[in-house]
Amino acid sequence: MDWQQAASVGSAAWTSVALLASALAGMQGRGKLWWFFITMLCGPLALFFLAIWTKPLKERD
């Protein structure tokens, strides 16, 4: 695997983690777009923080 293939796989994985964080944020009542961009910058660390931050901002019915 050369560097171009590795970069493609890495960027696809990074974007997938950001999409996963966006979906998790939406389920918790947080802003999807903000968490997408935060995760694009900070990566899996932001997803981990979002996952352990259990109290949602909006109360569920």
Main beta-sheet annotation:
none
Helix percent reads over 70%
Q: Give the helices and strands as they follow along the chain.
A: HHH
Shape: elongated
Structural class: mainly alpha
Strand content: under 5%
Distance between the termini: 50 Å
pLDDT < 50 runs, ≥5 residues: none
Rounded average pLDDT? 86
How would you describe this protein?
The chain has 61 residues and is an all-alpha fold. The chain is 74% helix and 0% strand. Helix 1 packs antiparallel against helix 2 and helix 1 runs parallel beside helix 3. The protein starts with a helix and ends in a 9-residue tail after the last helix.
Brief sketch in words of this structure:
The protein is an all-alpha fold and 61 residues long. It is built from three helices and no strands. The model has no long low-confidence stretch (mean pLDDT 86).
